[in-house]
Amino acid sequence: MTDKGLTSAPLSPPGDPARAARRDLKVYLPWITTPALCLLLVAAWWAYIDVSGISAFILPTPESVWHAWIGLLQSKRAWIDTVMTIYATLLGFLWAMAAGVGLGVLIARVRWLEQTLNPFIVASQVLPKVALVPLFVVWFGFGVTSKVLIAATLAFFPILTNTVLGVKSIDRRHGDVMVSLNATRWQVFRKLELPSSLPYIISGMEVGIVLALIGAIVGEYVGGDLGLGHLLVARMNAFETDGLFAVMIHMTILGSLFYFAISLLRRALIPWHESAPRGTRNV
What are the tens digits of pLDDT across the range 197-219? Predict the structure, then answer.
């Protein structure tokens, strides 16, 4: 029974065109606002150069950076460097995935193992990973092996910690129900533990792939004659500031593509989860 003194707005029917239009606007609005913000930042960059009169050696114009990036895309050597960075990043990331997920599941399920390894995990988290780069170069040389290991080291810990958190977050009552239905240990893992922990693991992968790229580039920056890190140093030594910006833009695009690939993996593996894109979520 409704009080006469209170008024309520009528609810929109499920097929209401206005409601559908608002939902579509929320989905497609970022495709407008994000490019608009990028254009605004470029305009502010250009305006600052015009107003301040800063030297092009310190801050090049967006136009010169654009031409430098186009020249980078037309360079065969730049693409060789890009392929080498991609190789070191992906190989290191795969090693980090295998070690992080495997050890994370064990730590989450074996209490004494977690208590034993936790001090070492905390100590390794506190240690700046970049400090290991010169040591890896000394141990494994200037080849691709040191870059792969640096990438794997940086990507390992977010994957490990998210895997542990994902396995621990599973409601144990669900496991008890499956056990009461005579489910095997493998069935419990495949039907319950793995799907429930996947959102956490993929979140760790999103962070890990970016850190793996950073690790590979830093390794190339310190030692080696191939890769985008080496290309960045070469542009710096040649005092080509516009080339430095072009290489950084190239790195940013590459990292964004890696991150987007993991996002597609989230869409494919866990479309039912709240973190999946709204258009793919099973309701």
Answer: 888 888 888 899 999 999 888 88
